[in-house]
Amino acid sequence: MTNSETFPMARAAGCPFAPAPGLTSRAPVSRVRLWDGSEPWLITRYAEVRAVLADPRVSVDVTQPGFPHTNAVSKARDAQMKTLMQMDPPEHTAQRRVLAPEFTVRKMAALRPRIQQLVDDLLDRMLAGPNPADLVEAFAMPLPSLVICELLGVPYADRDFFQGVARTLVMDDPDPARAVAASEELNSYLEDIVAAKAAEPGDDLLSKLAVEQREAMTPHEIAVLGQLLLVAGHDTTAAMIALGTAVLVTHREQFHDASADPVEELLRYLSITHTEARRVALADLEIGGQLIRAGEGIVAVKSTANRDPLAFPDPDRVDLRRSARHHVAFGYGRHLCLGAPLARLELEIAYATLRRRVPTMELAVPLDRLEFKENAIFYSVRELPVRWASTLTTVPPGSSTKNRRTPQDSSVSG
After folding, report:
1. What residue spans carry the region label Disordered (predicted)?
2. What is the pTM of this model?
């Protein structure tokens, strides 16, 4: 069976928040062609995607024959560094058990005051600066970077270095060697940090791993874990803050609905993982009435699963009052995103504070003039120019900006 359509597919012009038409128009289970001529199965419907992600007969191990690599860079990067995301049990189970206690909902909730302070400080600076401003540079990128740096114990002063390396890792650079070199460079940097923390631990995750796992994990293995958390922990959340804000300010009536929580609906609506969930069958299995043989690749499309009308009525409409927590934006099954509680908390605080402090915010350019990152693992907007109506106001006592006067938004109706 052959198929001339190549995955990943381009999104439609004028529909930057919707999955590619070539994905939404397909049968629930069909073949698709990859860059190397291989033809894995493409799974697009909610029930079938969840079935694949929960099935122990499918593997995330990139070294398995038939695993669907989306491009040459992905293949080279995966071969160079195997992370938690590319491990099956029991190896996956052992490493996840080490990290899971550090990302519980309760532990993340303890970070709320600090994240709120970081959000307010960043908005203080943005509102005191040029208007319009680029929300990506001023807010969406620095917030998750600050949070994950403090959590891991990585110096935020080094952000230009690791953000530059991360861009190389998550973008589909035409030269695989550059991605491999970037990964090695970041891993060497983190190994040095792990060694320093083993000698002089601090109150952070890398220190804890360096001390408590010194018999079970090598410094290299701890650094690889750190690289995964550092790159995924800031890039994905930054993309969601920027894209989610673009959706909110172009749906004004919902942006001003203070009683609605936008987080789950925006996660469902946007589903930013461009390369989707890739697997390979370890045994014959049937999905959606189609037999998938052992050794055949599978691409489970979370973005279309989250737009399946059988799971989400009227799925192409943004509805912040929708009950959408059963989305698969964070995956499903044993590879459900470990950092989901942290991402949810950051997004909740970011969106709520933007809505409260900058209710007049709007795009400073037409939506069709924004540039989006289509050639990347995580779909996002390159820049998000925004503007707001500003007046000088006194910040109420008790906030993180107590007793300072800062340019803030004026309230508007509608």
Report:
1. 392-414
2. 0.90
Distance (Å, whole) CA 408 – CA 390: 5
Place of tokens 């929300």: 135
* All structural domains of the chain: 89-269+312-409 (1.10.630.10)
CA–CA distance, 222 with 194 (Å, rounded to integer) = 7
Can you tell me the distance from the alpha carbon of 95 to that of 88, in angstroms, rounded to the nearest whole number?
10
Distance CA 362, CA 252 (A): 9
For 70: left if phi > 0, alpha if psi spans -120 to 50, otherwise beta; the answer is alpha
Amino acid, res. 254: Q
H or E segment at 298?
Answer: strand 297-300
Q: From CA 393, how far away is CA 406, in angstroms rounded?
A: 6
Q: Are strands 390-394 and 405-409 parallel, antiparallel or unpaired?
A: antiparallel
| Residues 363-398 pLDDT 10s | 999 999 999 987 777 889 999 999 999 753 334 334
Pick the closest to residue 167 from 73, 26, 55 (CA basis): 73
Give the span between the Cα atoms of 324 and 181, in whole angstroms.
Answer: 40
The CA-based angle 322-308-245, given to 5 degrees, is: 50
